[in-house]
Design a protein that fits this description.
Blueprint lengths: L17 H10 L3 E3 L6 H5 L12 E4 L3 H14 L3 E4 L15 E4 L6 E4 L4 E5 L4 H9 L3 E2 L10 H7 L6 H4 L6 E7 L5 E5 L4 H7 L8 E8 L1 E2 L3 E10 L3 H14 L4 E3 L1 E5 L14 E9 L3 H12 L6 E2 L2 E4 H5 L11 E9 L4 H11 L8 E6 L21 E9 L5 H15 L20 H5 L3 H11 L18
Length: 476
């Protein structure tokens, strides 16, 4: 049991009845926050600094039972609900204006069964929480590339990272999930129990309920892996990318090469004269045995005249956190993303052209190598449909000053429009900003109609609508 916190009245004072709020607080193991509480601003803040919303009430849940109580509280009162895992999604759907925020972030338990090679992960855990627990046993599952990302949001959108060409998407490694639906029912979803719901959760975003825990299959990984960065001068970018493409197109599944174009951060292995200048970075990761992996990346390392090459043995957990300093919370962020069936010459030309005029020092263009195990599943195997993507581009437009909003957003949209002719038309749901509601059907692709039918079955009133939303439709 917890007591409701109190504090000075603020600009966004709660409109909720004190008796109701106190009653909710008494039923929770976690805490309840109102706008009057001193901790309120810290609790409501999400990763993207462009998102500044003020829920009328926040339930910070410590258990699945807390989530059940919070969902029932909101449903009984007809409240608008946002659900937060780690609050990392670019669109900021983890927080609402004036409604009720169900915050799962204290629920960080990770239980690993090394014999069964599985992990049960609570919905507030981050990638760092999960990787830290599984790597104690030399195990891991495919996750993302920024360790502060929440496991829940990543998984519900599909999830991909360094292990995905070898072992598939995060959802391809999901074995089961515990779900609280809009009507307060507690369900277990797996291939054998509520299989339709399980299918929908694997890529259908947060449309079908609050997942309180996930069960994953694990693979032998690390604790050291062959990985690292190869850095080239920007003047050589077009030529290097053409040779990168030749390498990446033929790379075996265990090799995952990406590329990033940005201004050089102050990395210790780069000379000071390079800091702040445009560079091309080739991050590469090799799954499995390091010694047999070295010859596989030798051709990539032989391209051009790099100014730095730090490919070698690294702790897997360290590699998973390597990009964290570039994605710290609080900055203003706007993303645009495309999937590509191939990297055409015109696409490479456009990428280099727009990289040459980045609108801010923190902006970067990254292109991930997809394919491999990710694309060997049928399109309808999971709700995530993009089994035709060989490359994925995400434009990380990132800046600090609100006065730069128009220039940064405008550059990203113009670049996005230029690249559309080379793209599949699909988009990864986890990379969609808040203004891309017209792309929702593209995010779910040919699986949209089935998802709409399942949405009608599990959430006919669209109670969970603060997401990349699927409208309920009994006829699909």
């Amino acid at each position: 049991m917890t007591e409701r916190k109190t504090g000075a009245m603020g600009e966004h004072a709660s409109a909720f009845d004190d008796t109701e709020v106190d009653g909710l607080a008494a039923r929770l193991e976690g805490e309840v926050f109102s706008p009057e509480d001193p901790e309120y601003d810290d609790v409501r803040t999400v990763w993207n600094g462009m998102i500044d919303r003020h829920p009328g009430l926040i339930a910070r849940c410590a258990s699945a039972n807390d989530v059940f109580e919070a969902v029932r509280f909101a449903r009984d009162r007809g409240l608008e609900v946002a659900v937060r895992g780690a609050g990392h999604h670019i669109a900021g759907n983890a927080v609402c204006e004036g409604g009720f925020l169900i915050d799962l972030s204290p629920m960080k338990t990770v239980q690993v069964d090394p014999k069964a090679r599985t992990a049960r992960v609570a919905a507030g855990a981050t990638l760092a929480d999960m990787d830290g627990a599984t790597q104690r046993h030399g195990l891991a599952t495919p996750l993302g590339v920024n360790s502060t990302t929440g496991v829940a949001g990543l998984t519900l959108g599909g999830g991909f990272g360094w292990l995905s060409r070898m072992h598939g998407l995060t959802v391809d490694n999901l074995a089961a999930a515990e779900v609280i639906t809009a009507d307060g029912e507690r369900l277990r979803a797996s291939e054998d129990e509520n299989p339709d719901l399980f299918w929908a959760l694997r890529g259908g975003s947060g449309n079908f309920g609050v997942v309180t825990s996930f069960k994953y299959r694990l693979h032998d990984v690390g604790p050291e892996v062959l990985s690292g960065l190869i850095v080239h001068p920007f003047d050589d970018a077009r030529e290097v990318l053409e040779r990168y493409r030749e390498f990446a197109d033929d790379a075996p599944d265990r090799v995952n090469p990406w590329f990033v174009l940005r201004k050089a951060p102050p990395l210790p292995f780069l000379s000071e004269e390079v800091h702040g200048r445009m560079i091309l970075i080739l991050p590469v990761f090799v799954a499995g045995d390091m010694e047999s992996g070295k010859p596989l990346v030798k051709p990539l390392r032989a391209i051009g005249k790099p100014i730095a090459d730090v490919v070698g043995p690294h702790p897997y957990t360290g590699w998973q956190q390597a990009f964290d300093p570039l994605l710290t919370p609080g900055a203003r962020n706007y993303w645009k993303s495309h999937n590509f069936p191939a990297l055409e010459d015109g696409a490479l030309d456009a990428i280099v052209n727009y990289a040459g005029r980045l609108p801010s020092d923190q902006t970067e263009i990254f292109v991930a190598r997809m394919g491999g195990a990710m694309n060997r599943k049928p399109v309808d195997a999971t709700a995530y449909p993009h089994r035709d993507a060989e490359y994925l581009m995400n434009v990380h437009t990132r800046w600090e000053d609100t006065g730069e909003d128009d220039d940064c957003v405008g550059w990203a949209r113009e670049f996005f429009d230029t690249m559309a002719g080379y793209a599949t038309g699909g988009v990864y749901v986890n990379f969609m900003p808040t203004d891309e509601t017209e792309r929702v059907k593209a995010a779910y692709g040919p699986n949209y109609d089935r998802l709409a039918e399942l949405k009608h079955r599990f959430d006919p009133d669209n109670f969970f609508h603060l997401n990349q939303n699927i409208a309920p439709n009994a006829n699909g």
